[in-house]
Amino acid sequence: MTTNVDLYDSSYSNYSLETYSEIRRETYGEDYGQTSWVSTAESHEIPELLQLSADSSVLEIGCGSGGYAVGLAKRIGCRIVGFEINASGVKTATALAENEEVSDIVEFEQHDASKKLPYEDNSFDAIYSTDVLCHVPLRKQVLTNTQRLLKTGGRFVFSDALVIGGVVSNEEIETRSSVGMYFFSPPGVNEQLIEESGLTLLEARDTTENSARLSKRWHDAREKRKDALIECEGNENFLGVQRFLECVHTLTSERRLLRFLYTCEK
User: Fold this and answer.
1) CA neighbours within 13 Å on the CB side: how many for 215?
2) Partner of 33 at 20 to 30 A CA spacing, among 100, 172, 210, 218?
3) Could you give the count of Cα atoms lying within 13 Å of 111 in the half-sphere of its Cβ?
4) Handedness of CA 86, 32, 150, 205 (dihedral sign)
5) How many helices (H) and strands (E) does the chain have?
6) Torsions phi, psi of 20, nearest 5?
7) How far apart are CA 37 and CA 218, in angstroms?
8) What is the spatial distance between Cα 185 and Cα 183, in angstroms, rounded to a whole number?
């Protein structure tokens, strides 16, 4: 059985280390503290898909280390609440907002996306979530929560990197799941759950190529800094993350696992 691998705690707690920043810049071209498969072009497009303005009230489901939310707030001036189940992520995100002097319009909290969220109905103009829902049980409940929290006409943009596109072995599933809890879905299930939640699907875009390209870049950027990463993570964990990234690249480049970006409206 594949050993569990620490990808997220080490990434979030070591956010400020130059080695990890270098890896993110080499992988994505920009550094938002990313640990996902969202390309820089997609990161720039998300505010347009959400139709954000300075007056928007925004919720991020799975904020990670907070870099993207902080960047959005600085560029657009909108108010953002980000939440994350990982305590290290929330701590790092809160410190980042303070350092970047946007804590008056950005706040971060620790919540579980699969449970009822402590926000009022119809309280957000926009909600987004990048490669998070594949970690969360009770996906229909997450989508129903989102529909409840959005104002009429508000938009929800999310991505799912674990749509099954072909035959995947048990060893590949174990390796792909070694960094956390994951839920794989057949084609069409997200579309069905979106409809059942009361949201309207505007677009489902195949972005599998992002996962294939970024996983290879991420792997290679880490390999260049092997000694420094082993000092931070330990040799066994370093090798485990590398195996994970190799597996992601193989499955997505062969289109046996697909990634889609969904834009929905209430």
Assistant:
1) 22
2) 172
3) 19
4) negative
5) 11, 7
6) -70, -35
7) 10
8) 7
